[in-house]
Amino acid sequence: MTMLIYKDKSKPIEERVEHLIGLMTIEEKVGQLVQPFGWQVYEHTDGELSLHHDFKQQVQNGGVGSLYGVLRADPWTGVTLENGLSAKQGAKAVNLIQRYAVEHSRLGIPILIGEECSHGHMAIDGTVFPVPLSIGSTWNVDLYRDMCRAVASETRAQGGAVTYSPVLDVVRDPRWGRTEECFAEDPYLIGEFAVAAVEGLQGESLLSEHSVAATLKHFAGYGSSEGGRNAGPVHMGWRELLEVDLYPFQKAVEAGAQSVMPAYNEIDGVPCTVNAELLDDILRQAWGFDGVIITDCGAIEMLASGHDVAEDGSDAAVQAIRTGIDMEMSGEMFGSHLAEAVRVGKLETSVLDRAVRRVLTLKFRLGLFDKPYVDAERAEQVIGQAEHIRLARQLATEGIVLLKNVDGTLPLPKTSKRIAVIGPNADQVYNQLGDYTSPQPRSRVITVLDGIRGKLGKDQVSVLYAPGCRIKGESREGFGNALACAAEADTVVMVVGGSSARDFGEGTIDLKTGASKVSDHDWNDMECGEGIDRMTLGLAGVQLQLMQEVYRLGKELVVVYMNGRPIAEPWVEQHAHAIVEAWYPGQEGGHAIADILFGDVNPSGRLTLSIPKHVGQLPVYYNGKRSRGKRYLEDDSEPCYPFGYGLSYTTFSYERLTLSTNSIRADESVTVTVDVTNTGEREGAEVVQLYISDTVSLVTRPIRELKGFCKVVLKPGETRTVEFVVGSDKLQYIGRDLQPVVEAGRFSIQVGRHSKDTLCAELIVREDE
């Protein structure tokens, strides 16, 4: 019997795809473009797995191209630690799904399993790494690449083949609830992490059992929404869009990313889901992207009910696929309307085939036709392994930013002093994990209280604990116990901030005893995360009032912020002896914070978001225009802490900023060197930052722009010469014709500790001779 061409792995992918498309019915083609919710297709009862009848019927009637979140576990899916799938069971579930699709559909096309992996695979047993905002604060691209390899390995081990990450949005308004999912306010820095994500997730080959296809999101402008409201309109010109928001996506596409997800928002009145200039002119034509474009959940329906640019679901589906959408997450609009649209002549078969071709090509690139199943035993070995946990701790430690340290308050001595650990985030597991997190056994997550107790040991010091209050709400019933603990202590560590924890059914906390208890009302402390946007950047609830009462006791006050967006609290800045920004540090966060507090690790994190003095200063991003204005009536426009800022337990000096030449042509480059010396008494890591300013230009330019960085570890007294190469890629901008240009003239080359502390040298770019 002759083997069908599409099943012959010796044939080129393009030939296999075209042969398969030629065999498919309209229903089978549409089936490849839909992505139902994966957790709804199986039943897990008493350890036994079975498939739902509706899913079986869908497979037999035309097929299912993809499933979203087969392994996703959280309150939305209703998958818990009790009814969910372990690492081994998850792999078995995916195998069961794939086997049915391969053996019971007419053509045996395997299913593409897509999973959420923003900071770890969002499945039970998956390692929970710090959120991207914390990862960005490490300024350690190599370490993040290693993390992405770990995440890809854990995901692929269970059969997940595509991840809906990395998030490459440029944050312009931190009131936005999804700030925690982003790396920075700076496109260059995000671009470096974007490339590392693609390299780490996809590896050297998509066929590898350690690789998944990366999906870049949200394309584009999502972090610049009106008022910081999720999915709100974006008011942005094409020059800014090209220079800022599209830059990280372009870098990731050039690195080989296989999938892109358009954003929910509109730009200048055109929803990204049907923006042909974005999806075709730029992404496919200009950048050469040849992968799959998949919508965000419900985005096509939003065209007819929300954006109101389509008459109904059928019109929305046709508009979307014609513009370039290949697959719909949730699948309802494509699944309901595309086949009929083709039959009545509303949609050309060639347009349908184009989308199917892209989806099938990705499946072949991933090797799903030739190896659709995974080894369940291996999944158990790979997922949550010790090396991944060690990596999570290192990332959390390097992402912690020391903001303030009066008279060497930190590191704390490991002596017989009493320490009071107070605050709603001191011992609340889910409050340190961030959004897009699966349920966790208590034993897997190290809280700050756990970390401090483990660091000091039972016999060395008395560690007192009281939550004091919740993140939200006005209850002060815990104040008395918290103040009593603080009164007995020499040092108070206040662990406050925010929470992106959805309702995991863990109840609440007893403010008098600190013990977990089942709540008598639907309590939720969530004040950050997707769809949770704020009007202010202050501490919610009565957290500030609790701190103020503790401060009146005259104790040494160390504040640890654990949160998903910057906090603007002038009182804390003025009165705390030390301030540590930990963001959401993941499952090893307690260990990492204790490592920093007691000096076992020297802090090296640096801010990737400017922290304002007051929410009324927004926007405060460092690379604003020179023409942005000087000050307000009440205060200047400078941030409380600038982009790139962070303290260390040692000190560094910068000397001898040198250019290899002070004059170049536009097509030449210059080598920039600077000597960095550790002038303190202990080893430390410094993030050396390169900024460039085009001093005179035909269009207005930012005050300065990050164009390079390097994290160096120096022993006491050690000097390192750090080198950067500056060429046209770092000097160019988008000109009046919306094309990249390097203008002749003067440039300021700036190198230093952060955006407000640099040495400067002048570079001349000459006219072409």
Automatic annotation (TrEMBL):
Residues 686-755 form the Fibronectin type III-like domain. Its EC number is 3.2.1.21. It is an enzyme of class 3 (hydrolase). The keyword Transmembrane does not apply. GO terms for molecular function: beta-glucosidase activity. The keyword Hydrolase applies. Keywords: Glycosidase, Hydrolase. It comes from the Bacteria. This is Beta-glucosidase. The lineage of its organism: Bacteria, Bacillati, Bacillota, Bacilli, Bacillales.
